[in-house]
Amino acid sequence: MIDLHTHTNKSDGTDSPRELVNKAIVQGLTVLGISDHDTTSSWQEATESLRGNLQLALGSEISCLTEDGISVHMLGLLFDGAHEQMQVMLEETRDGRLPRMRKMVEKMQAAGIDISMADVEAARPEGATLGRPHLADALVNKGVISTRDEAFQGMLNNESEFYVSHAAPTPAQAIAMIRKAGGVAVIAHPFASHRGQILKASDFQELVAAGLNGIEVDHRDQNPEEREMLRSIATELDLVITGSSDYHGSGKLNALAEFQTSPAQWEKLESLADKRRVVRA
What we know:
β2, α2 and β3 (55-65) form a beta-alpha-beta unit. The chain is an alpha/beta fold. Strands 1, 2, 3, 4, 5, 6, 7 and 8 form an eight-stranded mixed β-sheet that branches. It is globular and about 50 Å long. The protein contains eleven helices and eight strands. The protein has helices at 17-27, 43-49, 84-95, 97-110, 117-123, 132-141, 148-153, 171-180, 204-210, 224-236, 263-271, and strands spanning 2-6, 31-37, 55-65, 71-77, 184-188, 214-218, 240-243, 279-280. The protein has two domains: 2-95 and 167-280, Alpha-Beta Barrel (TIM Barrel), CATH 3.20.20; 97-153, DNA polymerase, domain 1. The longest helix has 14 residues, at 97-110. This is 3',5'-nucleoside bisphosphate phosphatase. It holds the Pfam family PHP. One of its GO terms (molecular function) is 5'-3' RNA exonuclease activity.
């Protein structure tokens, strides 16, 4: 079983890197992709926890914005974690998250919602990359909503009155940096329409020109029709087709390995990195 998109408590998941690796081993995964938001801080603990036959495809899910303000997430896998320019880009993207969060909290307070930055920080694990899931958890803790999923379907949706974008690279810039750092770029859940505005089929040609390697086709946030359309686009553009859980631990309904990548597609994707960076025990 190959799951190339998961999160730990170094961003907005609830499992530590060690706990996630242990769960993957128990479930019999062969390849686990760890892609915390805009950070590589989970890599060391995950690597130190590795044993048995499990292999790690380490990476990061990079927050991007198109020129017309559409939020896009780009999975960078198998890149050189010591690549200085990549780390600068990740740091700058993380830095943009704090003012964004303050603005979202201010908007909610203006609407009479009982929430504060202190509440958000209390819901954020130490050292984790700040994100909307921590605001969702704070809203749950305050009794404003019931679950994270409810938050993302309503108050924290990209179309919500409370949503605020943040400084981020364009998808093409993120792809270029991932490839420059020796990795492979896979666009995450590009047709997840319930999250807000999505890309159009015609947008993928530009991303391929920038160096895109694959499309995350099989994902719970994309319905069967959307998956079929993405599968056709990937086939037409000769892109790798991946399936992933986007597992966040207890924070979301997504179950580890609920969607998977075929061994043949994974082999093709891995071959496109400039070096063999899969971590083995």
